[in-house]
Amino acid sequence: MKRWIAAFAAAALFLGGCASGTTDGDAPDVAATPDDDPMRVAALTYETAELVAALGAADRLVMVPEAVTNPVLTNHHEAMVAVETHAATETTTNAEAVIQAAPDLVLLSDRHGLEEGVGTVLRDAGFEVIVLPNSWASVDDMLANIRITGEALGLDDEAEELSATIESGMAARELDGERPRVLVLGNQAGQPFITAGAAFPLEVLRLAGGDDVSAELGFTATAPITVEQVVQADPDAILLIDMNGSGRRLFEPIMDSPAIATLAGSAEDRVLLLEGRQVQALGLEHAVEGLDAINAWLTDLE
């Protein structure tokens, strides 16, 4: 029996707050059957948006996070800019905005409470919601999510091809000498954060031949870091991940400190700056480029 997605816009009547996104006009009339391949996909997290595009279905996207229009976070910039609705952030996405976009499939990862919040409301309103089962922290996580999403979109062959590219390209590299101890910093919150815990960039670093120092400092999750903590870590090298297009600027409170300048690991050839799309899971097959870049950098340190 056909399900008229636009009818679910009535669910917005019991939702509080304003839509966290931009859209033009009223929700369009969209019909779908459970057996149809979804043609209007709301991808509510960075990785799911990039994955749909990587599978060749960017034209099916009707809602994505605003951040994936940033060239340092996407390998499909023009396609992401062209999506009709952009959620301001993952954390502020609300169900009313998604309902207004009239998707026939909602994809998300259970992060920032999305499944319990937006996901639950959308399911109750009758929308098809797929919550990917992991946090995208490893290559195995990525491959599992590609398979699930490819099946949901009716793009099994494309998913198999993408998985094969990633599986072969993300094979571990070996270094001749000892594995360098590397401090990984990101700027996603507008200030230097140490990358720690279950995080895909640390998987890339490990595969490239380096060891992460965050655990030595007692970090179990990504968090702000001080100059004193960097000095305590005394890493062999420092990897900077630009998540917003500001380059090295937001790392200056740490990197330009006189105390940091005394560390051997802060020498110019021992600091590497990469874009988020090269080392985050949202980069998908382009994470191979980041892996190669880190491996070449670490090799030159020997």
Question: Would you kindly provide a written description of the structure presented here, covering whatever features stand out?
Answer:
The chain has 302 residues and is α/β, with parallel strands linked by helices. The chain has two domains: 3-169, Rossmann fold (3-Layer(aba) Sandwich), CATH 3.40.50.1980; 181-301, 3-Layer(aba) Sandwich (Rossmann fold). 34% of the residues lie in helices and 16% in strands. It contains twelve helices and 14 strands. A six-stranded mixed beta sheet has the order 2-6-5-4-7-8, sandwiched between helices. Helix 5 runs antiparallel to helix 6 (156-169). The longest helix has 15 residues, at 139-153. The chain is globular, with a radius of gyration of 21 Å. It starts with a strand and ends with a helix. Mean pLDDT is 89; it is low at 1-34.
